[in-house]
Structure formats: structure tokens, C-alpha cells
Specification:
The complex is a heterodimer. By secondary structure, chain A is mainly alpha-helical. Chain A has 10 helices and 7 strands. The chains are: A mainly alpha, B mainly beta. Chains A and B meet through helix 3 of A and loops of B.
Amino acid sequence: MKHLLIAAALLVSFAAGAQQKSAADGIAEYRKMLEDGNPAELFEAKGEGLWKQKRGPKNASLELCDLGQGPGKVKGAFVALPRYFADTNKVQDLESRLVTCMELLQGLNGAEIANTPFGRGEQNNVTALATWVAAESRGLKFNLPQGHAEEKRSYELGKRVFYYRAGTHDFSCASCHGEDGKRIRMQDLPNLTKNPGDGIGFAAWPAYRVSNGQMWSMQLRLNDCYRQMRFPYPGFGSEPTIAVSTYMGVNAKGAASIAPAIKR
Amino acid sequence: MADPMRIRAQVAGDKATVRVLMAHEMETGQRKDAAGKTIPAWHIQDVTAQHNGKTVMTAQWGPAVSKNPFLQFNVKGAKVGDKITVSWVDNKGEKRSDEATVS
């Protein structure tokens, strides 16, 4: 009888232990299980193909595209973007830079691509290219240049955008991402005012979202954050979106990239 | 033409673990578009896996399988250098076949 009681007590303590697994642990476990078959790989492959394929009115590939490391150099480019580009005299993030290359090298209409909604036409190609370029820097640590005056200005502007409260809910990025331990429903939110750690926040996008089966780039990630905050949609590749990326990217200095990641 | 599959096949003991990622919309036929019209069903129906030309697995899939599906299975007796071929046919009759070498 005594043995039975001990066994019963043990069972109870085991059950309690199992319940202590938090929702966040559950999500982490789920993500781990999905990692092996991350469909982002499909977009990576598509992006690599697009990079090498001769397309557009000029029938050219993107192999001479300068992403900041010199023409055609892809490895390491992702972890040093956004950065200043002399030819456009602008700080550009990965996607806006890709659009510039598509315009300059291939003769495609950059403004038209920027106005195309996410998930349609050439925007799909931009996302796939961004996925591949990001994947080429997997495991590398973020180290955005801040030497140029425009890069510093972009960071300061991004900081202001990050803390700018507006909309019907009087939200800013900082409302959710300004301190540790915040969450939306079950989803833990990274604190983006500092380095949130390897593969978290800026170091995780582009990412494949299992719940809607879509590949999301950083521009779309930001766009949806603004939707959730009930802001008007920011323009694709607009200065404030790039500035916020600069702010997050500089803050994430030293964080290893796991992009393209897989998200719930 | 559908986008290519990603196939990885690795020897683990006396078998090979094959991991396949397929690029497919996998529309269920239950969803409606922005205009309220039903989006017609469009999904993979038949999947076949071959080991050096011999069929080792067939599967029938339906609308419950996710978009961009991931498939993993083991092939007994597969060795380094063997060929694994995976093919699918969807309900529109579209086909895709890709090959990988066991490593």
C-alpha cells in the first residue's frame, strides 16, 4: 500500500512537471520540429535561379549586382545591410537594393515593383532573391557599417520612428519591442532596443510563416507590424522602413543570422 | 512548369533517410478569394518514390496536406550513390519529377 502511494505521488509530481512547460517552450519545440523541412529552402533555390537568370528588357542577370561587398559578392552582404550606397546616394536595405539592381542591370521598372503588393508578380521575385541572399550569410554576425554620415542619420531617424507613437491605438514599435519579456498572446516578443540574441528579431527575417504558407521579407514584416499598430501602410522601401531596419540592425551587432528562419 | 523539389537523401545505418520539400500551392477548394469566389481545389494527388528505378513508396494526397509540403521517409538498403526519384501528379494533371543521389 505504501509503495502504491509513493508511486501515486511520483506520478502526480511528473504530471506537474509536464505542465510547467510554458507556451513559449511549446512553440520553440514546434519550430525545432519544423526546421528540418523549412520551405524557405524552396524560395532560396528560386532566388538563386533568379540571380543567375538573364531577365528584363536588358536581358541581364543580377550577377554584377553590388550589395555593398562589391559587384556580385553575396556572402556577408546580408549582415551588413542597410548601408550607404554612393551610386544611389541613399542608405538602402536588402530589398530596396535588389530593386535598384533589377532596374539598373535588367531594365525592370523599379517604381512599378515597389508599388506591387507583396506576394504578387515581381515582388515574389524580390522576396525569393532576398531569401537567397540572406541564406548566403547564414551563421555570420551582424555588423552594419556606421561610418558614413547618412548611415548615422538613418540610425537616428530609425530610432525616432521606433519610438514614434501614433494611430488609433497610440502605439509605437517600442510599445511591444522596447523592453524584455513582452508578448502578443503566446508569442514572445524580442526587445529590439538592444541585441536580442542570435537568430532573434532582425537576425531571423526573411522567414517562412507556416500559418499562412508565405515567405516574409523584412519589408513585409515591418508592413504587417504597422498594420497591427493600425498605422497607414508604409511605402515599400521607403526611408522610414529602411531607417527602422538600420536601427534594429545596428542594435543587433554581433547577433548571428539564422535567416531564412521558420516561424509559427 | 512547377518549381523544382528539394530532395536530400542520407545514409543512416542500413537505410537512407529521404527528405523532400515540394513547391505547391495545395489549394483545398474551401477558400474564397477577395471577390468572394471559391478558389478551385489544386493539390498534389499522387506521390511516387523510386529507388534506382524501383518503386518503393506511393502515396495518395488530398486537400488536408499543407502548402509547400515536406515529406520524410526511409528507404531500406539504400547505399551511397543510389538514385532516389520522387514524382508527383496534381489534380490538374501537372507533374514534377526530381532526382537525388544518396550521400
